[in-house]
Amino acid sequence: MSGITHVVLVQWTDRADRSAEADGLSREHLTRIDGVVSVVSGPSVSPEGKEGAYDWMLVVRFRDRAALEGYLPHEEHQPVATFIGGAASDVVVFDVDEG
To answer: Around 13, how many Cα atoms within 13 Å sit in the side-chain half-sphere?
Structure first.
């Protein structure tokens, strides 16, 4: 059984920093979903400055592909997705199979 890493990059609308709100929602809700192994989020602290237009990142590790598939429609995912959808001008999602 292999895990899945789910990466979300967000550019906030009008560059208003919504990172603290997104961090709180992500940690509160996503950790309640069965199959979520870990949740890490926040603005970049990289000295390289290669974030491009993106202000915030969310990384969710899942036990397996079935957990990722169950996450998308899950009721605990909805508050996070709704917040990001309303506060972001651009979102990139990238999923990687760790297997």
So the answer is: 7
